[in-house]
Write a structure and sequence with these properties.
The protein is mainly α. The protein is 47% helix and 11% strand.
């Protein structure tokens, strides 16, 4: 499988596109379709429908302190399969 590197410039370009065009660019537009195309070419599983059907779930951040600093961190998302009982 061919490996590619995502340089920070790609990430910055994506952030700018989201800021300019809104979250639909990511979840329903060119980004989702580009990911689907790349996945198909490289044996991946994600599709544009996966992006379109994703539901954002707001979670409380983790807040702590270290010395004189307040640290705020985001919780990691928990996939549904991790919460389902296995038979």
């Amino acid at each position: 499988m061919k490996k590619e590197i995502c340089w920070p410039t790609d990430l910055a370009r994506s952030y700018r596109a989201i800021a300019k065009q809104g979250s639909d660019w990511f979840y329903r537009g060119p980004f989702a379709h580009a990911v689907e195309k790349w996945m198909k070419q490289n044996g991946g599983l994600l599709t544009a429908d996966d992006f379109r059907n994703y539901k954002i779930e707001l979670r409380e951040p983790i807040i702590t302190s270290y010395r004189d600093f307040q640290i705020v961190a985001f919780r990691r998302p928990v996939p549904a399969e991790c919460m389902s009982p296995k038979s």
